[in-house]
From TrEMBL, chain A:
InterPro entries: Dis3_CSD2 (IPR041505), NA-bd_OB-fold (IPR012340), PIN-like_dom_sf (IPR029060), PIN_dom (IPR002716), RNase_II/R (IPR001900), RNase_II/R_CS (IPR022966), RNR_Ribonuclease (IPR050180), Rrp44_CSD1 (IPR033771). SMART domains: PINc, RNB. Its main location: nucleus. Keywords: Exonuclease, Exosome, Hydrolase, Nuclease, Nucleus, RNA-binding, rRNA processing. Residues 519-854 form the RNB domain. Residues 85-209 form the PIN domain. It comes from Aspergillus cavernicola. Belongs to the RNR ribonuclease family. The keyword Nucleotide-binding does not apply. It is found in: Nucleus. Gene3D superfamilies: 2.40.50.690, 2.40.50.700, 5'-nuclease, Nucleic acid-binding proteins. PROSITE patterns: RIBONUCLEASE_II. This is Exosome complex exonuclease DIS3.
From TrEMBL, chain B:
The keyword Ribonucleoprotein applies. It is found in: Cytoplasm; Nucleus, Nucleolus. InterPro entries: Exosome_comp_Rrp42_subfam (IPR050590), PNPase/RNase_PH_dom_sf (IPR027408), Ribosomal_Su5_D2-typ_SF (IPR020568). Its main location: cytoplasm. This is Ribosomal RNA-processing protein 42. Belongs to the RNase PH family. Residues 32-56, 97-117 are annotated as: Disordered. Keywords: Cytoplasm, Exosome, Ribonucleoprotein, Ribosomal protein. GO terms for cellular component: ribosome.
Length: 1033, 394
C-alpha cells in the first residue's frame, strides 16, 4: 500500500497567507479551536520620517492621505547612541517599566509591536490601556507597528517553539528588519551616520543572548536606564516585583496561603461553594474587611491579614465561608495600621510573621467580643479570600514613613522604605528607592507591583513626587489622583470641536437660519435663573405666567448643550470619560471646555441662548394639565443668587411681572413639595458645609466655613428640577423602552437599618419604621430630641448612610418595577437639568430631542438619541463611578480646607501665645472600645477621638501631641456595647471625678485644632485633632 | 428507484450481463491463483494517496483517495459536555466534592475509579454519500458498522504492564472522560466526495482511522473534579490517541501505541479470498465480510473486533439461462455443456458459463481462513496498519 502527501511548498499563493491557531474557551464552557487566516502585506509603513519609500506605499485613506509618520528623523541620542535611537521594548519591559515609558524625560521614539501589545493585553488590561493612551498622544512619538501583518516581519512559530520564544524572535526580527530597512531607504541623499540605532529592550537573558548572536542591539531595562540622565530617579520607577522575586526565590518563607487555581475557583463559583465580590476594608479597622456577595443579604466579614490574604480594598476576589466556630462579630475597636505596626522594619523580612504579636492581641480582643450575647456582638459569618479575580490596584498617593527611612539617608544607596498611602484602607507599601532622603516630607505617587506570598506588605515603586506636603498644588493634585479625577487640560482635539466663533458666537438673528430649525421663540417670556452665588455655569432657568384660561404655564429651560456637543466627536468622548464636573473648594474641574460651560451654553442673563424647554400647563392647584417639550431660544431677564431671589420675593414693594412670576413659582413649588412629601419622599441630610473662599486675607479664615443654609428659593429651584426630570424620564422611557438613560435609587434592604434601629431604641426609645420610604420619612420626623436640635439631622445623616446610592442605568437593565427612586418616592426618574456638568443629562437631552422628533440643523438630531444598550451600560458604569468619586473629592477638598483654615488660625494665634484650638459642639456618632467617632456640624467633619484625647476633669486641654501620647498607657476604658457607652478613666484612679462617660448621640464639647506630628512615625503629617472636653458625668 | 437503492446494501450493481458475471466469477474462482480484472494479487490493495490535517478548523482530519478516483474526507470535532449522572451517582459525587473542598485536596483515587468508564453515545458519526439521504440504509448501516468497533474496542487495558504512558485506559470511551462531571463529545463527519463506485467501507474506514490518529484535544489545565479549563495554545494540544517515541527504526518520530480500529472488506469467491475488492468483484462475491481489527497493545499483535456480513449484491443479479433450459436454443446444445458442477463454496449445482445469483452461505472454514489472513503476523492487517502509520500525521 502506498501513501502520498501533497506538498504545500510548491503553491506560490501560500507565501502571503498564513494562519493563526488557538483554543478559545467560551463562557458557556465550550472549547473551540479557532483558526484565523492572516494575509500578509508589504505596505505597512515603518513610520520613520527618515524613510523615503514607505510614504509612497503606505495605505491611503478615503481622502488620499496617509497617516502622518511618527518616529522622528533626529531621535534623541544617549551617550551610548550618539546618532539617536529607536526603542523596541518587549512585553516584560513594558510590564516592569510602564511608568518609565510614560515619563516625559526619556523614552521617545518607541516602536510598539503588535505582538507586544497583544501580549500585554493578556497580561494586564490597565497597562494595555495606558499604552494605548501613550500611542495616541503625539508628543511621546510611540508608533504601533503591525509586525504580524507585514510579510517581512511575520514570524511563524516553529515546531517545538514556545510562544514566548516565538514572540521574542518576532521582536528581534523586527529590530533586524528596521535596521536593514532604514539602511536601505536612507542611503540615497542622507548621510550614513544619520541612521538611528535600533535598541531592543528586554530582560530575558536568553533573548539578550540570541540578540547578540544575531547582531541585534539589545539591553536590559535596567542597563538602558542607567545610561540615561537622572538614572537614579528613573531606576526607582522600575517595577519591583521582578527583582524581589529573583532575590527571594531561594528563601521561600511564605506568609500567606496560596491562591486557588483559576479552574478551581470557577468550579467553586459555579457550584456555589465559593463566592465572588469586591473586597472592602473597614475605615476604622484596617484588619477587618467585608464583602458583599449576591448569595447573602449581609456582607461577610473578613478578619485579619491571613484571611484577607493579600487582597487590597477594591479588588474583586473569591472567598470561601469559614466554619461556624470561626465566626466573629464585627470589631468594636479602632485599629489603625500606623499605630499598630509602628516599628516594622522594611528591610527585615526574616523574622516577620504575617500576624505580629500586636495584631494578634488586637484580634484576640475581638474574639472575646464575639462571645458577647447582645445583638451587636453576635458572631457573624466570616470568610477568607482564596483567590483574586481582578486586581483593582491603581496609583496611590502617600508619604514616606520617615521612621522606616532609617538614619543613613545620605548617599544614593538603594534602600527599602514604607510608603503610607493617604487612603487608610490600603496597607503600607514597601518601595525601594535611591532618593529616600529627598522624598521625606513630600507627597508622592507610588504604585503597587506585586504582593507575593513571601512578603508581608505589597511591594511597589515610586512614580513621581507631587511636591511638598501641605502645599496647595500638591494636596489638590493628590486629591484628584486619589479620586481618579481627570484633571489634565483638554487636549487640542477636544478644543477643535468648539464653535469657531469662540466667545463671539451668537444666536443667529434671522429666523431663516438653520439654527432656528424646530426651535420655538421664547425670548419674550420673563425667564430668570436662580443659582448659588458666583455660579458661572448656569444650567437652568424658569418662568411662570398666567394663561387666559386661568391656568398657569410653567417653564423650565435647560442649557442646550447637545446642540454644541455632537455624539462621538472628541469632545463628547472626553465628556463621557469625565462624566461630571468636579467642584473643589477653590477649583472646578470642568466636564466641558470653559467656552461652552461658562459662556455659550450657560443661560446668562440679558443674552439670547439656545435652550431645551419643558413647559407645563398647571391648574392653580399645581395639577399638571399637559406637558410640552421643545428646543427654544430664550433670553434670561436676570440671574439671581438664592438670597437675592429670596429678598426680592419677600420685598412687598416689588410688584413687577418678574417678581410676580417668581412668587407664582414659589407657591407652586410649595405645593409640589407637599405632594412629594405626601407620596413618601425622604428628607435626607448629609454633612454639608460650604466654603466661601472669596474672603480676603485678614479676618478669621474659619469664617469662610459655613453650613449650607436652606432657603425657600433653594427648594423652589429643586422642586421644578425634580418635576422636569420626572416628566422627561417618562417621555424618554416611552420612546426608548430599552435604552432610556434613567436614574434609580434602590430600596435599601431592611437589615441595613438594623444597627441604627437598635441604637435608637436603646438610647432614645425611638422607633424607626423602614417598611417604606413614606414610613421611614414619618418616623424620621418623629426622631426629635427637644434638648438637642441637631439630633434629628444626625439621625438623618446616619439613616442616609444605611441606604444604597442612587445610580444611572439603562432602562433595559431592570424591570420597570425596579425603576423606583426610593428617596424621591418617584416611580421613574432621570437627570435632565444639568447638562453642563453631568454627562447623563447630555445623553438624556439627545434622547428627548429624538423623542420629540427634533431634527436639528442637519436633520440628524432625531437619531442622536439612539445608542446601543451595551454602550449605554458602559457609560452608566463610568458615570456612576465618576459621580461617586466627584462627591468624595469634593468632601475631601472641604476637609482639607477646614484643616488648613484651622492651621492658619492656629498660626495667627500662635503669635499671641499658644494654639489652643477652637471649641465647638459635637455629636457622638459611633462608640468603639477604644475611642469614639464624633461629628462636628460647624465644620462638617467627623473625626476619631482616641482615649488619650479625652480631656478628663483636672486635665489640661492644651497639652501638645507628645504630652497626650504619653497618656496612652495610662488610660483605661470601660466599653458597654449594649448601652453604647464608653467610660474613660485614668489607670489606677477609680474615683469618678477623674472619669468621663460618653454615650452614643450625646452632645459633647470638643476642642478642634490642627496639629502636626512632631516625632515618631509620620513626622510632619498634619491632621485635625479633636479633644473631648466635656461629657456627661 | 429508491426501493432498489435501499435494497442494494453493498453498492449499485454494475451493469454486467450474466455472461460477464459468469466470466468474472470463473476467473476469480480459479483455484490457487485467482485472476482479478485489474491484475492485482488477492491480497493487494489499490494504491491510495492520503494526507492528514487538511481541514484547519477541525480537531483532526484526513483525506484518502483511491486510484479509481473515489475520495473521502473525514473531519473530527470535539466538544466539551457535561456528563449527566444518575441521581444517586450525582449526590454521591456532590458529597465527595464537598469533602474535597473542605480538605482542599484534588481528585483522589476514589475519583479516578468512577471516571474511567465512558459512554458509547459520546461518539457520533455521520456519513454523507452523494445521492443518499442521511437516513438511507447505506449511510446509517455504514456508520454503525464503523462506530461500533471504535467505541467498543478496549485496547491497552488496565493490565498493561508498560505503564500508563501512551496507554489508553478504557479505550476511546475512557479517553473522552475529563472528570466525573465532564467529558468530550466526538463528532466524526465522513464525507464521500465521489460516487460510490465500489462499496465505500474500506475507504471510509481508512480515512476515519487517519483522521482519528491526527485528532488532538486541547490540553487540560485544571485538575481533578474542577470544571475543565484548557490551555489556549493549540501547539500544546494532545493527541486523542496518545503517541510514544518509537523504538522501531523503520518509522521515524513517534508512533501511536493505541490505534483506532480499521475495518477491511474481504470477499470470498469459491475457494479464493480476495481483499479490497473492486465493484465488479463484489458483484460476483459469494460472501462479503467487514472485518474490524486493531492492535492489541498487551500482546502487540492484532486483535479481531468484529465481523459483519454484508449482503452480497450478486444475489440480486439476473440469472442467465442454461442452454438446456433455453427455449431458443433447446436441443442444440452439446451434452458436455449440460454437465453440472457443484460449487465448492455453496454446494449448489452449477452449470459452467451459466451465471447463477449467489444465495449467500459460507463455510466456517472459509471465514476462519479469512480471519486468519487478516490477523496473522505479517498478514494483510499488519500491512494496512503499518501503511497507515507511514502517513505523516501532524
Amino acid at each position: 500500500m502506498k501513501s502520498l502527501r501533497r506538498d504545500f511548498s510548491s503553491d506560490p499563493s501560500t507565501a502571503n497567507v498564513t494562519s493563526k491557531v488557538f483554543v478559545r474557551s467560551t463562557k458557556s464552557g465550550k472549547v473551540q479551536k479557532i483558526v484565523r487566516e492572516l494575509y500578509l502585506r508589504q505596505d505597512i509603513p515603518c513610520s520613520s520620517r527618515l524613510c523615503t519609500i514607505c510614504p509612497t506605499v503606505a495605505p491611503k485613506d478615503a481622502n488620499g492621505n496617509i497617516s502622518p509618520f511618527v518616529l522622528s528623523e533626529v531621535p534623541a541620542g544617549t551617550t551610548a547612541y550618539p546618532r539617536g535611537h529607536y526603542i523596541i521594548p518587549d512585553t516584560n519591559a513594558l510590564l516592569n517599566g510602564m511608568d518609565l515609558f510614560e515619563h516625559t524625560g526619556a523614552f521617545y521614539d518607541v516602536i510598539i509591536l503588535q505582538t507586544v501589545l497583544e501580549e500585554l493585553k493578556n497580561q494586564s488590561l490597565p497597562l494595555y490601556n495606558r499604552l494605548l493612551a501613550l500611542i495616541k498622544t503625539d508628543e511621546k512619538r510611540f508608533y504601533l507597528f503591525f509586525n504580524e501583518f507585514r510579510l517581512e516581519t511575520h514570524v511563524r512559530r516553529g515546531q517545538d517553539e514556545s510562544i514566548n520564544d516565538r514572540n521574542d524572535r518576532a521582536v528581534r526580527t523586527v529590530a533586524k528588519w528596521y535596521m536593514d530597512h532604514l539602511c536601505a531607504v536612507t542611503k540615497k541623499g542622507k548621510k550614513e551616520k544619520a541612521i538611528p540605532a535600533i535598541v531592543v529592550i528586554t530582560d530575558d537573558k536568553e533573548n539578550l543572548r540570541k540578540a547578540k548572536e544575531e547582531n541585534v542591539t539589545a539591553l536590559s531595562l535596567e542597563n538602558y536606564v542607567s545610561g540615561l540622565e537622572e538614572s537614579d530617579k528613573l531606576l526607582d520607577m522600575i517595577n519591583e516585583s521582578r527583582e524581589a522575586r529573583e532575590a527571594k526565590e531561594a528563601r521561600g518563607e511564605l506568609f500567606y496561603p496560596e491562591y486557588y487555581s483559576m479552574s478551581k475557583m470557577m468550579t467553586g463559583l459555579r457550584a456555589g461553594n465559593l463566592h465572588q465580590g469586591v473586597f472592602n476594608v473597614s475605615p476604622y479597622n484596617y484588619l477587618e474587611g467585608s464583602i458583599k456577595v449576591s448569595a447573602f443579604d449581609k456582607p461577610l466579614i473578613i478578619m485579619g491579614r491571613h484571611n484577607s490574604n493579600r487582597a487590597i480594598s477594591g479588588d474583586s476576589v473569591v472567598i470561601e465561608v469559614l466554619p461556624k466556630d470561626q465566626w466573629k462579630s464585627p470589631s468594636t475597636k479602632i485599629v489603625e495600621e500606623e499605630v499598630v505596626t509602628k516599628n516594622d522594619n522594611p528591610d527585615a523580612e526574616d523574622n516577620e510573621a504575617v500576624v505580629t504579636e500586636r495584631e494578634r492581641k488586637a484580634l484576640q480582643d475581638e474574639v472575646r467580643q464575639a462571645h458577647g450575647k447582645n445583638l451587636e456582638g453576635r458572631p457573624q459569618p466570616t470568610a477568607k479570600v482564596v483567590g483574586v479575580v481582578k486586581r483593582n490596584w491603581r496609583q496611590y498617593v502617600g508619604t514616606v514613613d520617615s521612621s522606616s527611612a532609617g538614619s543613613q539617608t545620605t548617599g544614593r544607596r538603594q534602600q527599602n522604605v514604607f510608603v503610607l498611602p493617604m487612603d487608610k484602607k490600603v496597607p503600607k507599601i514597601r518601595v525601594r528607592t535611591r532618593q529616600a532622603a529627598d522624598l521625606l516630607g513630600q507627597r508622592i505617587l507610588v504604585t503597587i507591583d506585586a504582593w507575593n506570598r513571601d512578603s508581608r506588605y505589597p511591594t511597589g515603586h515610586f512614580i513621581r513626587s507631587l511636591g511638598e506636603l501641605e502645599t496647595k498644588e500638591a494636596e489638590t493634585e493628590a486629591l484628584l489622583l486619589e479620586w481618579d479625577v481627570q484633571y489634565k487640560p483638554f487636549p487640542k482635539s477636544v478644543l477643535d470641536c468648539l464653535p469657531s466663533e469662540g466667545h463671539d458666537w451668537r444666536v443667529p438673528e434671522s429666523k431663516d437660519n438653520i439654527g432656528w430649525n424646530g426651535r420655538r421663540d421664547l425670548r419674550d417670556l420673563l425667564i430668570c435663573s436662580i443659582d448659588p452665588p458666583g455660579c458661572q455655569d448656569i444650567d437652568d432657568a424658569l418662568h411662570a405666567r398666567q394663561l387666559p384660561n386661568g391656568n398657569f404655564e410653567v417653564g423650565v429651560h435647560i442649557a442646550d448643550v447637545s446642540h454644541f456637543v455632537k455624539p462621538n466627536n472628541a469632545m463628547d468622548l472626553e465628556a463621557s470619560v469625565r462624566g461630571t464636573t468636579v467642584y473643589l473648594v477653590d477649583k472646578r474641574i470642568d466636564m466641558l471646555p470653559h467656552l461652552l460651560g461658562t459662556d455659550l451654553c450657560s443661560l446668562k442673563p440679558y443674552v439670547e441662548r439656545y435652550a431645551f424647554s419643558v413647559l407645563w400647563e398647571m391648574t392653580p392647584n399645581a395639577e399638571v394639565v399637559s406637558a410640552d417639550f421643545t428646543k427654544s431660544v430664550i433670553r434670561s431677564r436676570e440671574a439671581f443668587s438664592y438670597e437675592q431671589a429670596q429678598l426680592r420675593i419677600d420685598d412687598p414693594s416689588k410688584t413687577d411681572d418678574l417678581t410676580q412670576s417668581m412668587r407664582t413659582l414659589l407657591n407652586f413649588s410649595k405645593i409640589l413639595r407637599q405632594k412629594r412629601m405626601d407620596a413618601g419622599a425622604l428628607n435626607l441630610a448629609s454633612p454639608e458645609v460650604r466654603i466661601e473662599a472669596d474672603n480676603d486675607e485678614v479676618g478669621d479664615p474659619l469664617a469662610d466655613v459655613k453650613t449650607k443654609a436652606m432657603l425657600a428659593t433653594n427648594s423652589l429651584v429643586e422642586e421644578f428640577m425634580l418635576h422636569a426630570n420626572i416628566t422627561v424620564a417618562s417621555k424618554i422611557y416611552s420612546t426608548f423602552p430599552q435604552t432610556a438613560m434613567l436614574r434609580r435609587h434602590a430600596t435599601p434592604p431592611p437589615q441595613n437599618f438594623e444597627d441604627l434601629i437598635n441604637q435608637l431604641t436603646k438610647k432614645r426609645n425611638m422607633r424607626l419604621d423602614v417598611s417604606s420610604s413614606g414610613a421611614l420619612a414619618d418616623s424620621l420626623d418623629r426622631c426629635i430630641d427637644t434638648g438637642n436640635p441637631f439630633f434629628n439631622t444626625l439621625v438623618r445623616i446616619l439613616a442616609t448612610r444605611c441606604m444604597t446610592s442612587a445610580e444611572y442605568f439603562s432602562a433595559g437593565a431592570h424591570a420597570e418595577s425596579e425603576f423606583r427612586h426610593y428617596g424621591l418616592a418617584s416611580p421613574i426618574y432621570t437627570h435632565f437639568t444639568s447638562p453642563i456638568r453631568r454627562y447623563a443629562d447630555l445623553l438624556v437631552h439627545r434622547q428627548l430631542a429624538s423623542a420629540i422628533n427634533y431634527e436639528g440643523e442637519d436633520g440628524r438630531a432625531t437619531i442622536e438619541g439612539s445608542i446601543t444598550r451595551n454602550r449605554l451600560e458602559d457609560i452608566c458604569r463610568n458615570i456612576n463611578y465618576r459621580h461617586r468619586n466627584a462627591q468624595y473629592a469634593g468632601r475631601a477638598s472641604i476637609e482639607y480646607y477646614v484643616g488648613q483654615a484651622l492651621k492658619a488660625r492656629g498660626e495667627k494665634l500662635a503669635a499671641d501665645g499658644v494654639d489652643s484650638g477652637i471649641e465647638e459642639d459635637a455629636y457622638i456618632m459611633r462608640v468603639f472600645e477604644n475611642g469614639v467617632v464624633v461629628f462636628v456640624p460647624r465644620f462638617g467633619i467627623e473625626g476619631v477621638v482616641r482615649l488619650e484625647d479625652f480631656v478628663l476633669p483636672g486635665d489640661s486641654a492644651s497639652r501638645s501631641v507628645e504630652e497626650r501620647r504619653e497618656l496612652v498607657p495610662r488610660r483605661e476604658s470601660d466599653f458597654d456595647p449594649e448601652e453604647y457607652t464608653l467610660k474613660v478613666t485614668e489607670k489606677g484612679q477609680e474615683q469618678s471625678e477623674r472619669a468621663m462617660l460618653v454615650e452614643l448621640f450625646q452632645r459633647v464639647k470638643v476642642n478642634v485644632s490642627s496639629v502636626k506630628e512632631e516625632s515618631g512615625r509620620g513626622v510632619g503629617k498634619r491632621r485635625v485633632r479633636i479633644l473631648i472636653l466635656k461629657g456627661r458625668k | 428507484m429508491t426501493a432498489q437503492r435501499q435494497a442494494s446494501s453493498a453498492s449499485q450493481i454494475p451493469h454486467l450481463s450474466p455472461a460477464e458475471l459468469s466470466y468474472l466469477y470463473t476467473s476469480l474462482s480459479l483455484p490457487g491463483t485467482p485472476i482479478r480484472p485489474d491484475g492485482r494479487s488477492p491480497t493487494q490493495f489499490r494504491p491510495l494517496s492520503a494526507e492528514t490535517d487538511i481541514l484547519p478548523g477541525t480537531n483532526g482530519s484526513a483525506r484518502v483517495g483511491f486510484a479509481d478516483g473515489t475520495q473521502a474526507i473525514v473531519g473530527v470535532k470535539a466538544e466539551v459536555e457535561r456528563t449527566v449522572l444518575g441521581v444517586q451517582a450525582l449526590s454521591q459525587a456532590e458529597q465527595q466534592e464537598y469533602a474535597e473542598g473542605n480538605e482542599g485536596a484534588d481528585g483522589g483515587a476514589g475519583a479516578k475509579q468512577g471516571s474511567t468508564s465512558g459512554q458509547g453515545s459520546w461518539v457520533q458519526m455521520c456519513i454523507e454519500i452523494p445521492g443518499f439521504r442521511d437516513d438511507d440504509a447505506l449511510p446509517v448501516f455504514l456508520s454503525e458498522m464503523m462506530r461500533e468497533p471504535l467505541v467498543e474496542s478496549v485496547s491497552g487495558g488496565e493490565k498493561d504492564g508498560d505503564g500508563d504512558e501512551g496507554g489508553m485506559v478504557g479505550g476511546l470511551k475512557g479517553r473522552l472522560v475529563i472528570n466525573r462531571r465532564w467529558h468530550w463529545r466526538l463528532y466524526i463527519d465522513v464525507l464521500l466526495l465521489s460516487q460510490p463506485l465500489s462499496y465505500p467501507l474500506p475507504l471510509l474506514s481508512l480515512t476515519t482511522h487517519l483522521a482519528l490518529l491526527a485528532t488532538k484535544l486541547p490540553k487540560l489545565k485544571s485538575k481533578g473534579e474542577e470544571d475543565p479549563f484548557f490551555d489556549d495554545d493549540w501547539n500544546a494540544a494532545e493527541y486523542l490517541y496518545p503517541r510514544v517515541r518509537t523504538t522501531r527504526a523503520s518509522i521515524p518520530g513517534s508512533i501511536h501505541k493505541v490505534r483506532p480500529p480499521v475495518t477491511l472488506l474481504v470477499i470470498s469467491v469459491a475457494e479464493n479470498i480476495v481483499f479490497d475488492p473492486s465493484r465488479e468483484e463484489i458483484a460476483v462475491a459469494d460472501t462479503v465480510l467487514a472485518i474490524s481489527i486493531t492492535y492489541d497493545t498487551g500482546s502487540n499483535c492484532l486483535k479481531l473486533l468484529s465481523i459483519r456480513t454484508v449482503d452480497p449484491p450478486s444475489r440480486l443479479t439476473q440469472p442467465s439461462v442454461p442452454n438446456s433450459e433455453n427455449v431458443a436454443t433447446l436441443g442444440s446444445t452439446a451434452a458436455a455443456e449440460a454437465s453440472a458442477i457443484i460449487n465448492p463454496s455453496t454446494g449448489e449445482e452449477e452449470v459452467s458459463g451459466v451465471w447463477r445469483p449467489r444465495r449467500g452461505g459460507v463455510k466456517r472454514a472459509t471465514i476462519a481462513r479469512m480471519v486468519k489472513m487478516v490477523l496473522e503476523k505479517g498478514g494483510v492487517g499488519e500491512e494496512v496498519l503499518d501503511g497507515l502509520e507511514g502517513v505523516e500525521v501532524g
